[in-house]
């Protein structure tokens, strides 16, 4: 009896010691992760401070809820990034008006506006596109005619009410695209990095009054291929649901980057400067480097294959 009970007692003792050590070891790893987060925050501040104009940034870790922010409550002109709430409102409206996506609007010289792509050269009255197709043009090639058609169909008040309902009260659509006289009067399209991040988080989590299919379609359209400084530092096999915007002196982007096991949201805005795209690219490179290094890690910072981690019940944190 003595020979068999001693090993059993020793195992109990070792188990108790391990259980006592585990919390302190995990706490130590919390300190490691805090060091990493502090480095990212400091580098974001350096990027913003080095910009010759004014910039703001908000980054959200969709897995942990951690946030990084620099001047994220400042209000900036949005240029074409304001088209994201328009897209969401179209698909939200489709929940109660399913025919709205197929509603056709004829392309005429009266409808056409400046800053458009292929719609600019279509013949007068030769085509009638659905509102869903106009939405694709609006996001993929940032077509301003398509955007103005959707604003007329949905109404500015409804689009702004949607933004407010998503926790983004400083996000305001106040004019159609290519209306310089309205800009001169102060009727600018506005948002903040914090607001934009909330809206993109709502898309990522489908925290919007619409079906899962509607959320998926919104995200699918935002993931249509686009280039630019947000896309450049991120490998082409990583999906990014994003909309950039740019006018003279202004550069913006709203984005969801779907790094496996570690998706995140980024919003960057700038004005009063020259190359705001450089700020966006620097933030995109920094955040991708950070989150890709967290992809597939264990609680001790080692990396394992994602299929192994998921099989044993590790936190995936995927946004889909």
Tell the overall outline. globular
Helix content estimate:
40-55%
Low-pLDDT stretches:
1-21
Q: Please name the CATH topology.
A: Beta-lactamase
Order of helices and strands: HEEEHEEHHHHEHHEEEHH
Number of domains: 1
Going by CATH, the homologous superfamily would be DD-peptidase/beta-lactamase superfamily
Descriptive keywords:
single chain; Beta-lactamase; five-stranded antiparallel beta sheet; 10 helices; 9 strands; disordered N terminus
Your description of this structure?
The structure is a single chain. By secondary structure, the chain is α+β, with helices and mostly antiparallel strands. The protein has a single domain, classed as DD-peptidase/beta-lactamase superfamily (Beta-lactamase). Helix content is 46%, strand content 15%. The protein contains 10 helices and 9 strands. The chain has helices at 2-50, 83-96, 131-140, 144-154, 156-165, 180-184, 193-205, 212-222, 276-294, 306-311, and strands spanning 54-61, 67-70, 76-77, 104-107, 127-130, 190-191, 240-247, 250-257, 264-271. The protein has a 5-stranded antiparallel beta sheet with strand order 2-1-9-8-7, sandwiched between helices. The longest helix is centred in the first third of the chain and has 49 residues, at 2-50. The model is unreliable at 1-21 (pLDDT under 50).
Describe the SSE topology.
Layout: H1 2-50, E1 54-61, E2 67-70, E3 76-77, H2 83-96, E4 104-107, E5 127-130, H3 131-140, H4 144-154, H5 156-165, H6 180-184, E6 190-191, H7 193-205, H8 212-222, E7 240-247, E8 250-257, E9 264-271, H9 276-294, H10 306-311
Antiparallel strand pairs: 1-2, 1-9, 3-6, 4-5, 7-8, 8-9
Helix pairs in contact: 1-9, 2-3, 2-4, 2-5, 2-8, 3-4
């Amino acid at each position: 009896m003595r020979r068999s009970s001693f090993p059993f007692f020793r195992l109990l003792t070792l188990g108790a010691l391990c259980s006592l050590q585990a919390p302190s070891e995990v706490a130590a790893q919390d300190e490691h992760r805090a060091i990493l987060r502090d480095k990212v925050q400091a580098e974001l501040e350096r990027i913003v401070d080095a910009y010759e104009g004014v910039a703001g940034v908000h980054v959200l870790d969709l897995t942990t809820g951690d946030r990084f922010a620099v001047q994220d409550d400042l209000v900036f002109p949005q240029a074409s990034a304001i088209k994201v709430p328009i897209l969401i409102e179209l698909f939200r409206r489709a929940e109660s008006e399913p025919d709205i996506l197929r509603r056709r609007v004829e392309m005429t010289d009266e409808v056409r506006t400046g800053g458009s792509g292929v719609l600019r050269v279509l013949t007068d009255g030769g085509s009638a596109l659905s509102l869903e197709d106009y939405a694709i043009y609006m996001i993929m090639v940032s077509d301003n005619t398509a955007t103005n058609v959707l604003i007329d169909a949905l109404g500015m008040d409804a689009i702004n009410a949607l933004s407010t309902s998503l926790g983004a009260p400083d996000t305001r659509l106040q004019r159609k695209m290519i209306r310089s006289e309205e800009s001169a009067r102060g009727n600018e399209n506005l948002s903040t990095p914090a607001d934009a991040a909330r809206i993109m988080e709502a898309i990522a989590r489908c925290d919007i009054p619409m079906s899962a299919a509607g959320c998926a379609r919104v995200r699918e359209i935002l993931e249509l291929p686009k280039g630019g400084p947000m896309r450049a530092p991120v490998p082409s096999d990583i999906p990014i649901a994003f909309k950039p915007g740019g006018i003279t002196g202004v550069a913006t982007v709203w984005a969801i980057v779907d790094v496996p096991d570690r998706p995140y949201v980024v919003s960057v805005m700038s004005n009063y400067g020259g190359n705001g795209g450089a700020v966006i690219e620097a933030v995109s490179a920094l955040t991708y480097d950070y989150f890709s290094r967290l992809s597939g890690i264990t609680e001790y910072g080692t990396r394992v294959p994602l299929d192994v981690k998921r099989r044993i019940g590790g936190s995936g944190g995927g946004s889909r």
